[in-house]
Every structure is written in C-alpha cells, then in structure tokens.
Amino acid sequence: MKDASLLTVPSLLLRHELRLLASLWLWMARRTHGTVDGSAAFGYARGQGAMMFGFAFVCVVESVGMSVLLSDWPAVHHVVLVLDVYTVVFVVGLHAASVVRPHVLDPAAGVLRIRRAVHVDVRIPLERISSVRRELRATHEPRDGELNLVVGAQTSVTVELAEPVSHVSFLGRHREVRVVRCHADDAGGLVRAVNRAREGHAVP
Fold first, then answer.
1. CB neighbours (10 Å) of residue 176?
2. Which of 66, 113, 145, 189 has the fewest CB atoms lying closer than 10 Å?
3. pLDDT of residue 122
4. pTM of the full predicted structure?
C-alpha cells in the first residue's frame, strides 16, 4: 500500500469513498475488518447509531421535498437527486465503517489498533503502553502529542505511551502522539483485556 503522504488529494478522496463502499458490503455481510483468530474486537459505534440514522432520515426527507420543489426543472432535479442519494449513502457508509472497523487487540502480534471509521487506524505496540484506564471525558482541548477520537461527544478510554507512535491524518500529515483517547462501548472490558495482554495472558 502506498504511503498516504505520497498520494494526491483526489487519490485520498477516492480511496476514502472506496473504503466506505467496502464497509457497507462488510456491514451487510455481518463481517468485520482487521480481526484475526486470537484477537478481540471492541466496538464504539453504539453511541452514534441513532444520531447517524436520524441524520440520514433528515436527508431523505430533504430529498423528497426538493423533488417536489424542482419537479418543473428536471435537469436540476436529477443533479440534486444524485447529490441527495450520495449524501445518504455517505452517512450510512460512515456508520457502517465504524461498525465493521472496531478497535482490535491482537496479543499474538503485540498490537492494539485504535480506529475511527475509515479515517483513523493507529497501531500501538503493547510494549509502548505505560498505562491504560477507563476515563470518561466530554471535553478535549487540542494539545501536541494527544489524539482524541471522540464518539458521541465523549471518550471513555485513555492510553498513555512510554514512547510515541505515529498517526497519519486523512490528508497524510504525520503526528507523533503519546496519549490516545478513544471511546469503546465496553470501556472496562477493553482496559482489562489490554492489561491482561500486557501481562502475557490470552484474551478471554
């Protein structure tokens, strides 16, 4: 796979759209991305589902309304309809990506993958973790060396690192981070599993 920093913006956007479409397929097939035998997946999309589908419903209502208003201008109506359908697919695809791309703990590989839909996939070697704890936060001040992956306006797990890891942004910008905050539907379960893996135990 090409390094994100070597890709142009159109290439990044195309890759993003293809990943969303692939996520929709995985979601319909009830499969997940990035999980292997012996690993444990921890979802984070439960808190955003109602909001995302509510937004999709609003888009559908808006599309119906625009169809009525633009019925006398078929060319404009067709363009707006395509954009409206794309918006609905985009919103549902974002939620699908969050469902099928959970956080993954792989003790055999010694890696914790913290993810956010198709936008973020940070691989953290377990030996670099100095502490992991359940911590509910609703406010996040931007700071150097910190990555906050907010879901439903909150994070519930904080991972502090003894050595930084590299995070690549959507547009290919590299950042070194020492603190990663994320949300997990089962925050306590994720924290316990990571601590067990750090101690050399198998994930239950």
1. 13
2. 145
3. 96
4. 0.84
